[in-house]
Specification:
By secondary structure, this protein is an alpha+beta fold. The chain is 33% helix and 13% strand. The chain is built from four helices and four strands. The radius of gyration is 19 Å and the shape is elongated. The protein starts with 34 loop residues before the first strand and ends with a helix. Bound molecules: zinc ion.
Length: 123
């Protein structure tokens, strides 16, 4: 499946010292080896799915339906470039995690909120 949105996660190639942050979950230093977890909201386009299911039933083949369907290259919208009802950007959330937190049980939604709060106070 190919995501239909044009948004891509931020770089990740060259990271400078000033880009390093404490762990977004526990607040401790990230250490030598750390993890970057990126997330955004993805929404399946219902019209594309309906078209696929309808064509599959008509043609008797999901593969043919995928080939013949007009919207199959973009069945998912990434909401990375949009804002929620409160005006907060839905963009990519990039969380830094230390090794201990990466291996622990995490609530990804709560982590994304912590990242959003950090970004709001540092920008
Ligand atoms: Zn941590």
């Amino acid at each position: 499946m190919t995501a239909g949105g044009s948004a891509k996660p931020p770089g990740g190639d060259a990271m400078k010292i000033r880009d390093l942050k404490p762990c977004d979950n526990c607040g401790k230093p990230i250490g030598i080896i750390f993890y970057i977890v990126r997330s955004t909201i993805a929404v399946v386009k219902q019209e594309s799915i309906r078209e696929y299911v309808g064509l599959s039933l008509m043609l008797g083949s999901g593969l043919l339906a995928e080939t013949m369907g007009g919207h199959q290259d973009s069945v998912v919208d990434l909401l990375a470039d949009q804002k929620d009802e409160n005006g907060k950007p839905l963009g990519w959330r990039e969380a830094f995690l230390c090794g201990d937190c990466h291996g622990s049980d995490l609530n990804i939604a709560a982590l994304a909120e912590k990242v959003l709060d950090r970004e709001a106070t540092t920008t």
